[in-house]
C-alpha cells in the first residue's frame, strides 16, 4: 500500500472509531439525577480514546495539508467573529 492509501485507510478507521464512541456516549446518556449505566472509569476511557483518535486525525490532516482548524459549534454557545480592517478593505476593493 502506498502512503496515501495508508493514510486514507487510517483516516477512515479513526473516523469510524470516533463515530462509534460518540454514538455510545449519546446512546447511554441519562437524565440528570439518574445513575449513568457506564462507570466513571469507562466514561474516562471513552474520553481518552476520543482525544487520541482526534489528535491522530489532526496530525494526518496537517501532514497531508487538509487540516481546516474547524471547531465544533454548540447551539447554546454564542459565536463571535472578528475581521481585521485590512481584510475588510481588501474585500471591498
* Strand percentage: under 5%
Task: Decide which structural class fits the backbone.
Answer: mainly alpha
Mean pLDDT comes to 83
Give the number of domains.
1
Number of helices, counting only DSSP H or I runs of 4 residues or more: 3
- Given the C-alpha coordinates, what overall shape results? flat
Beta strands, count:
0
**Are there runs of 5+ residues with pLDDT below 50, and where?**
none
Distance between the termini: 48 Å
Task: Please outline the major beta sheet.
Answer: none
H-E order: HHH
Gyration radius (Cα, Å) is 19 Å
- What proportion of the residues is helical, as a percent range? 55-70%
Structural topology:
Elements: H1 3-27, H2 40-64, H3 85-92
Helix pairs in contact: 1-2
Protein name: Segregation and condensation protein A
Notes on the protein architecture:
By secondary structure, this protein is mainly α. It has one domain. The chain is 62% helix and 0% strand. The chain contains 3 helices and no strands. The chain has helices at 3-27, 40-64, 85-92. Helix 1 (3-27) packs antiparallel against helix 2. The protein is flat, with a radius of gyration of 19 Å. The mean pLDDT is 83.
Entry summary:
The chain has helices at residues 3-27, 40-64, 85-92. It has 93 residues and is an all-alpha fold. It has one domain (3-92).
Amino acid at each position: 500500500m502506498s502512503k496515501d492509501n495508508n493514510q486514507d485507510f487510517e483516516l477512515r478507521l479513526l473516523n469510524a472509531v470516533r463515530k462509534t464512541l460518540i454514538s455510545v456516549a449519546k446512546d447511554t446518556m441519562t437524565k440528570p439525577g439518574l445513575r449513568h449505566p457506564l462507570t466513571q472509569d469507562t466514561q474516562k476511557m471513552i474520553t481518552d480514546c476520543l482525544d487520541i483518535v482526534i489528535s491522530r486525525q489532526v496530525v494526518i490532516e496537517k501532514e497531508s495539508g487538509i487540516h481546516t482548524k474547524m471547531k465544533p459549534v454548540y447551539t447554546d454557545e454564542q459565536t463571535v467573529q472578528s475581521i481585521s480592517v485590512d481584510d475588510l478593505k481588501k474585500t471591498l476593493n
